[in-house]
Each structure stands twice: as C-alpha cells, then as structure tokens.
Amino acid sequence: PSESPRALAARVGPGLELTGPALAGLRRIAMAEERARYAARPDSGTGLRQDSATVRRAIAAAVPRRTRWLARLLPSSVITPSVIRITQAADVFGRLNLGLPGRAGVGGTRLGRVRLGRSRPAGTGSADGHDGRDGTDASRSSEPPVAAGTRRQ
Questions:
Q1: Which of 4, 27, 99, 115 is buried most deeply by CB count within 10 Å?
Q2: pLDDT, tens digit, 9 for 90 and up, residues 123-145
Q3: Helix, strand, or coil (residue 130)
Q4: How does DSSP assign 27-50, residue by residue?
Q5: Which 3 state secondary structure label does DSSP give 93?
C-alpha cells in the first residue's frame, strides 16, 4: 500500500521477467495511475486498454497454470479481506467471557465464579470481608494469599 505505482512497476516488471512491449505497457500504466492520483489533470487514458491486455498476457505466460487457475477461482481481492474478517471475528470470540467455569475472559484472566478449594488474593473477598470458602475473614488468614487460578502446594 505504501509503494508508488512507479516503484511497484519497477519491482514487479523484472520480477515477472517482463520484456519489450509488456514492460513498456506496464510503465505506461504506472505513469497513468500516478497522474490519476497526484496530477491536477489525469492522463487521457488512450492506449491503456491495449497496454493492460498486453501486460495481462505477459503475466499469464510468466506464471504456472495452477497459479492462474487459483487466481481465477480464489482471487486475492476476495480472499484477503475474507481472511482478515475471519481472523478479527475469531479474535473477538476468543476474548469473550462466556461465564463458563475455567474459560479465559478478557485479557486472558479468569473471570466469573471462584472454584471451591481455591482462595482469592487479599482484598478480593466479598463486601463483608469473607472469602467465601470457610467463613473466615480473608484479611486475618494466617496463610499468604494465592493468585487466582494457581494451586497451593
């Protein structure tokens, strides 16, 4: 996305081993695109259709048949945004806290109910000062607090 049309043409042309009319057509297409983006008045566009056909034929001849068919059936202009959306959806669903015991919540921390047999860190008990395990006051416990999700040895 950050490459100028001229820089892209300079990189792609030799990479695909384009020569002669195809390379000249690619340069004209790149210059027309630069003028359309940056100039006060874009180019007239005459001859670009023929240049485009020449470049497409040269690219098709430079890549294997399998690549051409994959590009026709699964074009990257469709596949790339789809993969991005699926990844974003998976990320959103991975961060949701479904309230199920043992499921990681937002930020990878465990949210929801505390399992029996595990204590909360100091200061995280209920409003009345009880930790909910055995009715004792969490702040007066003789044992050091244990982080949520860890086991006592």
A1: 27
A2: 555 555 555 555 555 555 556 66
A3: strand
A4: HHHHHHHHHHHHSSS----TTHHH
A5: helix
128 C-beta neighbours (distance < 10 Å), count: 7
Measured CA distances, 112 to 37, 123, 133 (Å) = 53, 17, 16
- 18-26 long-range CB contacts below 8 Å, 24 or more apart? 18/55, 18/58, 18/59, 18/62, 21/54, 22/54, 22/55, 22/57, 22/58, 22/59, 24/51, 25/50, 25/51, 25/52, 25/54, 25/55, 26/51, 26/55
> What are the structure tokens assigned to 72, written together?
């026709």
CA-to-CA distance for 129 and 138, rounded, in angstroms?
Answer: 6
- pLDDT given for residue 86 in this prediction: 86
Look at the block and give the residue holding tokens 């990257």: 76
| Residue 86 CB contacts under 8 Å (≥ 6 apart), including other chains | none
Residue type for position 108: G
Measured CA to CA, the distance from residue 59 to residue 19 in angstroms comes to 11
Task: State residue 28's pLDDT score.
Answer: 94
Q: Which residues pair with 110 in a beta bridge?
A: 104
DSSP assignment letter at 114 = P
CA angle 101, 104, 107 (to 5 degrees): 150
Judge contact between 98 and 112, C-beta under 8 A.
no
